[in-house]
Amino acid sequence: MAKFGKPVVARPKANAARIAQWFASGKGQRLLGCGQQLLSPQLERMFGSYALLYNHYHTQPWTTGVKRQVRLGQVAQAQDINCTEDSWPVQPDSVDLVVLQHSLEFAASAHDLLHEAAQAVRPGGHVVIVAINPYSCFAIGRLFGKKPWRQAKCYSAARVEDWLTLLGFQLERRSYNCYRPLAWLKDAASMSALERHMYKKQLPLGNCYMLVARKMRPGSFTQARRKLALEQLIPLPTATASRTGSLDQQQHDD
Known about the structure:
This protein has a 7-stranded mixed sheet with strand order 3-2-1-4-5-7-6, sandwiched between helices. It has a single domain, classed as Vaccinia Virus protein VP39 (Rossmann fold). It has 8 helices and 7 strands. The chain has helices spanning 16-23, 26-43, 110-120, 137-141, 157-166, 193-201, 221-233, 243-253, and strands spanning 47-54, 65-73, 81-82, 95-101, 121-132, 169-177, 208-215.
């Protein structure tokens, strides 16, 4: 499980306009296409009244059973609602679905962003996350490339799963996709025989992964820290004499 004993230090934000510009490029579109291959079948099975799409990079709405899709996020992108990552103007427990596609990587505080998303979802609703796998060729290559990815922070699927568990979610699915450098990828649908094998086996080496989690109960990082602090203050139980032992001692004294 992730440890939350130390305070989380916020990182400098990457330039939102530059991020949007990169996703509009050829490599960005290929990366979004790989994520869309994972997202599309999943979202088609989702139902409800409202879905929130944070910092959504696609120009077209998703095909899903959710009646209304609301785009919210930073001003640099075309949004229905402009907001910061740590303050969503959304009533708690009010939406059926939140989609975070490549949002955690550029967040100043991934904890704050995930907390806002979790708080907005009703019990029984879902959070769907698409993010870069830190154990992939793209994650390694970005360190030698240009901004904005050099400013990004890639979190492993296991780490994000731990955070979701603390927030009261249960993981329903984890999937990986895109097993080659984006420069070698003509389009998201093109796969070699080796890539098809790796995708079928779901080896955790794909450039991006998708997590689907259902909200089971309320939770927060603050509650987790408070619980940990209280557990440290609980005294250890002490041994007490049993009633049988007391009676035996009394008879011996008599």
